[in-house]
């Protein structure tokens, strides 16, 4: 197995790079890249060999300070170039040959959908030329692109175009980016694209030219993305005081591509992250476009201007920028309700990482392949850790900390420690204990219990944290608390309890009655809460708490407890009976029209795996699914008229209406439809089919297709056929069709899903479609993936091996479910382990695939 890379072994590179000059003679079959790079030995370093990274390169020529290099002073291989420098300062010129059309890794320079483009994060630049390909090497770049003018009329790179010309059917453009940057945000593009232009005027009065590039087919659907970019740049100025630094900003929509790259001043995004109009995009898609466009724009400061010293600091840019995009979205939407969406995703995707063999801190101590650590932990938990920091510092203090951090380290490559130190200096706090969040893996548990003294009118709340591992130390944990009366009335202001010991007691004075504690308001810490609330108290919080997260989470907890109780009865063969308190709580939610439609929609959602099994030693998949189906069916039967009324009341919104009321209304309508089909009523299934075929917006049509995908009815097949036939010429909608098929839980769907791997529309190079299909099935289909036949596990093994042979993908991304194999009983456990064994025993698998599979197996 390839040797581990360890954080403790970090050493600065012995040479600085003063300037980079690149010339590309672009052609899909063979591209020549000539690099002229000036190096300077760092102060205090002895003169030594220059060792440069490469990957699959063929050296054509090399010169040192304009002279031929003596044979003994140069050693070249596809993976490395070693040169004996003549002095402390010198210029190395190399020419290498690349084959973009044969590059299936989608790293470096590759040919895709008639386009030539680059993807350099994390280590793709070494596939373009020999270079110290690490994030702590920053340099200004001058880039010249030359290509066939008819085939590739648009040439783009970082920075401003300073010269251009044409000769003999080829044209060229030279770009200069004066701001030093690391290799991973280098960009080059050649293709045929239309443009949509706009302008942003900065707070200081500068005019920035904004351009979205897309195919002629899609360019008229890019207006929303352009407006989102304007909004993001304005928000960053207004909230953080951060002004964009170049005179132009480009965003390129790449067809059939999964990814979003924050290349300096020239972002590359998949079409589905740019194109949005009601006939092809759902409300969720619109929000995703806004969030991702914002995320990449925010990287200009948190990632590009101040970058990572090494890849162990990945969360410094991704966790921080993820938090910034969340705050951006919260300011545009109902912030408390949008927070629920974030927590749902965290529990669904990141919590299982914490609970399995892939558990790691946001700053991992070691890795084999950094690609395997672009994880939910680094991104989502990283954002949660920095959100806690914001809570402790206050929002105003957090802004001051970020501004000091960016001012102090502008143009530098730094570590998480630099951010913590800036926060301490800006706000005068001690974050020594808080730093443990960055280095301790797993998720702590938070237990809470209280006692009330009626004579003293005092309430004492005891909080206790349980570590995720025996070696863990107590964390600095912000716990937002409010007290609620048994009638649901707030008793006093919200309080921030900063838990620093294993156990602490916090006292609340002048409390008139024994309260119900409202805990982790706004989900103030990424922990699992163990609270002694009984069912009636949970129902009270669900009905009356003014914190949207606590209201939603209380009902979720009530339903999880009910499903687990029903599952135990199902296992014992005892007749199932819905409890009165659950029926009453659900009825209250349905009747309450004082809350916004988006929150009401979320409250109507019944919890699913993996949340149902969170904290349990074994996943009772069959019991939980049987109990969940019973609970949904009972709710449908007992409240059908009320649910039907909600469904009908929310059908008035125009497809182009993207106000919070309209988006929430459509969301609530779909939530009601999902409940209406739960008892097998054929009329509800027909209503679902009608919404698929006649729904006025893609939000309604696609969501109805997903709902119908789980039903055992001929209408399911008819709906899929109708959706595909009508929209097969829209690539984004074909992606959605594959996604809905992959998520199906209908009886026997596993055979249908596995068979789709040979569908002619599922091309290996179409990374967005592959992600929609394979990612949805392997990560999110909690039922069919675990079909007792083992076909889902075998399908995953086949996919991991095939993708590895193409050199594409991050294998760990597809292993979220199978990583939990130890928590399942036989035969599922044995079948999953056998599938993993088959992968690891396959000859010549890559080090990256070997790393994640061995970790899963515990080898």
Secondary-structure map:
Layout (H helix, E strand, L loop, with lengths): L4 E2 L8 E11 L5 E11 L8 E4 L4 E7 L2 E2 L5 E4 L2 E4 L5 E10 L9 E5 L2 E5 L19 E10 L5 E4 L2 E8 L2 E12 L6 E4 L2 E8 L5 E8 L8 H18 L7 E7 L5 E2 L4 E5 L12 H16 L8 E2 L5 H19 L2 H21 L10 E2 L8 H18 L1 H15 L3 E2 L1 H12 L8 H4 L5 E9 L4 E9 L10 E8 L10 E5 L3 E6 L7 E4 L8 E4 L3 H10 L3 H24 L8 H12 L5 H7 L17 H29 L10 H17 L5 H13 L3 H11 L5 H14 L3 H13 L5 H7 L11 H14 L10 H16 L21 H13 L6 H11 L2
Helix pairs in contact: 1-2, 2-3, 3-4, 3-5, 4-5, 5-6, 6-7, 9-10, 9-11, 10-13, 11-13, 12-14, 13-14, 14-16, 15-16, 15-17, 17-18, 18-20, 21-22, 22-23
Properties at a glance:
alpha+beta, 31 strands, globular, eight-stranded mixed sheet, five-stranded mixed sheet, Neutral Protease, domain 2, Immunoglobulin-like, single chain, 859 residues
- In the CATH hierarchy, the third-tier topology of one domain is known as Immunoglobulin-like
- Unreliable residue runs: none
Indicate the structural class. Answer: alpha+beta
- Main beta-sheet annotation: 8 strands, mixed
Q: Overall pLDDT, averaged? A: 97
Number of strands: 31
CATH superfamily descriptor of one domain: tricorn interacting facor f3 domain
Rg estimate, integer Å: 28 Å
How many helical stretches?
23
Give the N-terminus to C-terminus distance in angstroms. 11 Å
CATH architecture designation of one domain: Sandwich
Task: Tell me the strand order in the biggest sheet.
Answer: 6-5-9-3-2-12-15-14
CATH class category label of one domain? Mainly Beta
Shape, per Cα inertia axes = globular
- The share of residues in helices is 25-40%
Q: What percent of residues are in strands?
A: 15-25%
């Amino acid at each position: 197995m390839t040797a581990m890379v360890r954080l403790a072994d970090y050493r600065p590179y012995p040479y600085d790079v003063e300037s980079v000059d690149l010339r590309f003679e672009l052609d899909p079959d063979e591209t020549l890249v000539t690099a002229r790079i000036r190096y300077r030995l760092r102060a205090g370093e002895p003169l030594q060999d220059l060792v440069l990274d490469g990957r699959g390169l063929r050296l054509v020529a090399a010169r040192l300070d304009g002279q031929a290099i003596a044979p003994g002073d140069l050693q070249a291989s596809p993976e490395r170039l070693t040169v004996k420098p003549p002095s402390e300062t010198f210029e190395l010129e190399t020419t290498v040959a690349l084959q973009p059309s044969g590059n299936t890794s989608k790293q470096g320079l590759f040919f895709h959908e008639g386009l030539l483009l680059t993807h350099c994060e994390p280590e793709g630049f070494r596939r373009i030329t020999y270079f110290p390909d690490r994030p702590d090497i920053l340099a200004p770049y001058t880039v010249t692109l030359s290509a066939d003018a008819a085939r590739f009329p648009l040439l783009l790179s970082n920075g401003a175009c300073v010269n251009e010309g044409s000769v003999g059917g080829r044209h060229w453009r030279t770009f200069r980016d004066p701001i030093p940057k690391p290799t991973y945000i280098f960009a080059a593009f050649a293709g045929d694209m239309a443009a949509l232009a706009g302008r942003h005027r900065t707070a200081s009065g500068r005019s920035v030219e904004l351009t979205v590039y897309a195919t002629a087919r899609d360019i008229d659907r890019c207006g929303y993305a352009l407006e989102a970019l304007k909004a993001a740049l304005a928000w960053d100025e207004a909230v953080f005081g951060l002004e964009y630094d170049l005179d132009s900003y480009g965003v390129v929509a790449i067809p059939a591509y999964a990814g979003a790259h924050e290349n300096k001043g020239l972002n590359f995004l998949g079409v589905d992250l740019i194109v949005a109009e009601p006939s092809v995009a759902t409300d969720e898609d619109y929000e995703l476009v806004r969030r991702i466009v914002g995320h990449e724009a925010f990287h200009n400061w948190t990632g590009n201007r101040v970058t990572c010293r090494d890849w162990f600091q990945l969360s410094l840019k991704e966790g921080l920028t993820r938090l910034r995009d969340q705050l951006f979205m919260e300011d545009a939407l109902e912030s408390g309700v949008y927070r629920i969406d974030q927590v749902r995703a965290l529990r669904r995707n990141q919590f299982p990482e914490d609970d399995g063999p892939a558990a790691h801190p946001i700053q991992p101590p070691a890795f084999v392949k950094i690609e395997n650590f672009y994880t939910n932990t680094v991104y989502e938990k990283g954002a949660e850790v920095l959100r806690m920091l914001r809570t402790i510092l206050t929002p105003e203090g957090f802004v001051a900390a970020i501004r000091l951090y960016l001012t102090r380290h502008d143009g530098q490559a730094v570590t998480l420690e630099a951010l913590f130190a800036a926060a301490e200096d800006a706000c005068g706090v001690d974050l020594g204990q808080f730093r443990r969040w960055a280095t301790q893996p797993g998720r702590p548990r938070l237990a809470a219990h209280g006692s009330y003294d009626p004579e003293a009118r005092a309430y004492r709340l005891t909080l206790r944290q349980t570590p995720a591992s025996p070696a863990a130390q107590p964390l600095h944990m912000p716990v937002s608390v409010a007290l609620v009366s048994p009638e649901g009335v707030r008793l006093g202001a919200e309080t921030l309890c900063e838990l620093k010991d294993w156990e602490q007691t916090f006292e609340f004075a002048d409390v008139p009655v024994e309260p119900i504690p409202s805990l982790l308001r706004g989900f103030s810490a990424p922990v699992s809460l163990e609270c002694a609330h009984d069912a009636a108290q949970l129902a009270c919080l669900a009905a009356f708490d003014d914190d949207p997260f606590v209201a939603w989470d209380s009902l979720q907890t009530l339903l999880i407890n009910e499903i687990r109780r029903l599952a135990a009865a199902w296992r014992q063969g005892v007749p199932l009976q819905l409890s009165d308190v659950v029926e009453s709580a659900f009825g209250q939610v349905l009747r309450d029209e004082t809350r916004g439609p988006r929150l009401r929609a979320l409250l109507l959602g019944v919890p699913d795996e993996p949340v149902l099994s969170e904290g349990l030693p074994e996943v009772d998949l069959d019991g939980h699914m049987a109990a969940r189906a019973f609970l949904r069916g009972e709710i449908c039967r007992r409240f059908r008229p009320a649910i039907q009324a909600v469904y009908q009341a929310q059908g008035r919104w125009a497809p182009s209406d993207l106000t919070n009321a309209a988006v929430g209304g459509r969301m609530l309508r779909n939530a009601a439809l999902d409940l209406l089909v739960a008892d097998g009523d054929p009329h509800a299934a027909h209503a679902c089919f009608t919404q698929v075929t006649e729904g006025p917006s893609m939000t309604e049509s696609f969501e109805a297709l997903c709902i119908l995908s789980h039903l055992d009815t001929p209408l399911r097949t008819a709906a899929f056929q109708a959706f595909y036939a009508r929209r097969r010429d829209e690539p984004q909608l074909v992606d959605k069709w594959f996604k809905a098929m992959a998520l199906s839980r209908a009886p026997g769907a596993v055979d249908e899903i596995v068979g789709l791997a040979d569908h002619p529309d599922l091309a290996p190079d179409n990374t967005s479609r592959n992600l929609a299909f394979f990612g949805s099935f392997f990560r999110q289909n909690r039922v069919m993936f675990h079909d007792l036949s083992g076909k889902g596990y075998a399908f995953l093994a086949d996919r991991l091996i095939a993708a590895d042979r193409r050199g594409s993908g991050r294998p760990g991304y597809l292993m979220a479910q199978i990583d939990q194999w130890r928590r399942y009983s036989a035969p599922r456990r044995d079948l999953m382990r056998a599938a993993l064994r088959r992968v690891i025993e396959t000859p010549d698998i890559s080090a990256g695939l070997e790393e994640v599979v061995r970790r899963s197996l515990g080898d």
